[in-house]
């Protein structure tokens, strides 16, 4: 195993060997269509979680099913598919688009794969063609349809039909070439440019199944991590690669080591390390990108400062929170890729901080606070309902503010309603009470007040007596007016406000 280093390549080096790009359809590659090992199984299921360009997390499932006589697509089939993609994309460059059928000779494929001549290669190409037609993909949000810009839940094939060399054509002649009829979704994605650029020269140098299977995933993973170091859970990696997960670290390392070292040799990795997780119950694979990988054209966007800043803006807000609390930046970024969007990470950070502070006030002390934070997030630690996080506090304060605003609004409406009723009473007085009638009505009110409150009436001045008399008169008039209720007035008032 190569010496592990925390240093990440930050500048693009000069690669002496020319890069011969082959662009493969991205969905087929990402869902793990080609197995890393050969076996008798005719079905396997792949579960993945990945992020869309808009940041939304997708939970994808793909069931790959073959037939007993042919089995599932293997690493050797991946080799042929890579060569086939070069042929298909050359056609697009020449004709402007990929169209059915795509014709090629067995010699063309053998030459592209840099194989020695041998009749058995043609038999292998025949089997590959048949396997690509027979294998079924049952997708649950794992196949992306570029024309619709959405992940599809449906059943798919890669090749709809293949005419082998020597088979009879409709006109009675024999085919001199292999003729592949791609499925419609493959044609559409290829012509829409939904492609993953890979270094074909580097790929053909690889000899091991696992290194070939990892080859394309490294481009995707390191692009997502902005060229930073990444970590992958060992069980998840084994499930993706369709290899056995070993319970002992030494055995797991011995299986992965030859392939990972092969990727170091072609400079797709600069270093790697397989270690136990912080909990000790599992393994994780830490990978650091190599010079050749970072020199690919599609990585220019993530090493360019302006483009990197735009990508940084898509990170969850809790990533810088973790970094500020001592979590390594690479680990915080990796969590952003691995953690579900629905997980309340910010709440868990605050609760873990509370536990750390609580521990400091006691006799104990958490030796590694950053590690404790990671433990809380990776285990999706449940936050007690009575623990008020800043998010809950903001929600409570916002709710209280809304309630206060509603109370204030209702009080204001009551004031406005009282002003309305007083206005209606004044209008009634002005319309129906002359000066003489008003004075007579006030005298009657004063007589009533004197009868009801004789001692008080005798003490107060005439101005107070008149003020109370006017108030009683207005109250009496209010009782007699056909005024709307408060609720009815509010409805009418709201409608008037609209106009």
Question: What features would you describe in this structure?
Answer:
By secondary structure, this protein is of the alpha+beta class. The protein is built from 21 helices and 12 strands. The strands form 4 sheets. A 4-stranded antiparallel beta sheet has the order 2-3-5-6. The protein starts with 20 loop residues before the first strand and ends with a helix.
Please give a quick description of this structure.
This protein has helices at residues 26-30, 75-95, 106-112, 119-134, 184-192, 200-203, 209-224, 234-241, 249-265, 291-294, 300-303, 305-312, 318-324, 329-338, 345-361, 369-378, 390-432, 435-452, 454-459, 462-480, 486-498, and strands at 21-25, 43-51, 57-65, 102-104, 136-145, 150-156, 159-163, 178-182, 195-199, 230-233, 269-276, 283-289.
| First and last CA, distance | 77 Å
The whole-number mean of residue pLDDT values reads 82
Estimate the helix proportion, in percent. 40-55%
Helical stretch tally:
21
Number of strands: 12
**What does the largest sheet look like?**
4 strands, antiparallel
Shape: elongated
**Which parts are unreliable, with pLDDT below 50 for 5 consecutive residues or more?**
1-16
Q: How large is the share of residues in beta strands?
A: 15-25%
**Secondary-structure content class:** alpha+beta
| Structural Rg | 38 Å
Widest sheet: strand ordering:
2-3-5-6
């Amino acid at each position: 195993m190569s010496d592990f280093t925390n240093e990440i390549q930050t500048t693009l080096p000069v690669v002496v060997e020319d890069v011969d790009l082959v662009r493969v359809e991205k969905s087929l590659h990402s869902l793990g269509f080609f197995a890393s090992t050969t076996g008798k199984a005719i079905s396997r299921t792949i579960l993945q979680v990945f992020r869309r360009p808009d940041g939304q997390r997708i939970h994808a499932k793909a069931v790959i099913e073959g037939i007993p006589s042919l089995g599932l697509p293997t690493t050797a089939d991946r080799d042929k598919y890579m060569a086939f993609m070069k042929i298909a994309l050359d056609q697009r460059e020449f004709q402007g688009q990929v169209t059915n059928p795509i014709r090629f000779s067995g010699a063309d494929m053998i030459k592209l794969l840099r194989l020695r001549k041998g009749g058995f290669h043609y038999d292998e190409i025949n089997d590959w063609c048949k396997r690509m037609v027979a294998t079924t993909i049952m997708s649950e949000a794992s196949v992306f349809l570029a024309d619709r810009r959405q992940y599809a839940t449906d059943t798919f094939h890669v090749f709809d039909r293949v005419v082998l060399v020597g088979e009879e054509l409709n006109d009675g002649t024999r085919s001199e070439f292999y003729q592949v009829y791609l499925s419609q979704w493959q044609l559409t994605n290829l012509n829409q440019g939904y492609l993953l650029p890979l270094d074909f020269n580097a790929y053909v140098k690889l000899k091991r199944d696992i290194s070939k299977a990892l080859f394309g995933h490294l481009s995707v993973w390191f692009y997502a991590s902005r060229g930073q170091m990444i970590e992958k859970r060992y069980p998840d990696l084994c499930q993706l690669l369709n290899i056995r997960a070993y319970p002992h670290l030494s055995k797991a390392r011995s299986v992965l080591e030859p392939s990972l070292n092969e990727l170091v040799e072609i400079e797709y990795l600069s270093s790697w390390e397989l270690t136990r997780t912080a909990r000790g119950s599992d393994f994780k694979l830490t990978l650091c990108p190599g010079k050749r990988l970072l020199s690919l054209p599609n990585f220019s966007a993530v090493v360019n400062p302006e483009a990197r800043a735009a990508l940084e803006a898509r990170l969850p807000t809790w990533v810088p929170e973790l970094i500020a609390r001592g979590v390594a930046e690479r680990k915080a970024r990796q969590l952003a890729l691995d953690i579900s969007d629905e997980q309340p990470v910010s709440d868990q950070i605050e609760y873990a901080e509370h536990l750390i502070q609580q521990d400091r006030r006691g006799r104990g002390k958490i030796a590694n606070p950053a590690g404790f934070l990671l433990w809380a997030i990776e285990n999706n630690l449940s936050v007690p309902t009575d623990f008020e996080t800043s998010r809950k506090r903001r929600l409570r304060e916002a709710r209280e503010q809304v309630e206060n605003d509603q109370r204030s609004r209702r009080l204001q409406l009551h004031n406005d309603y009282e002003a309305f009723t007083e206005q209606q009473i004044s209008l009634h007085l002005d319309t129906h009470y002359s000066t003489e009638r008003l004075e007579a009505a006030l005298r009657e009110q004063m007589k009533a007040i004197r009868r009801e409150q004789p001692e008080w009436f005798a003490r107060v001045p005439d101005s107070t007596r008149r003020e109370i008399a006017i108030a009683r008169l207005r109250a009496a008039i209010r009782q007699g007016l056909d005024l709307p209720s408060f609720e009815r007035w509010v409805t009418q008032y709201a409608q008037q406000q609209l106009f």
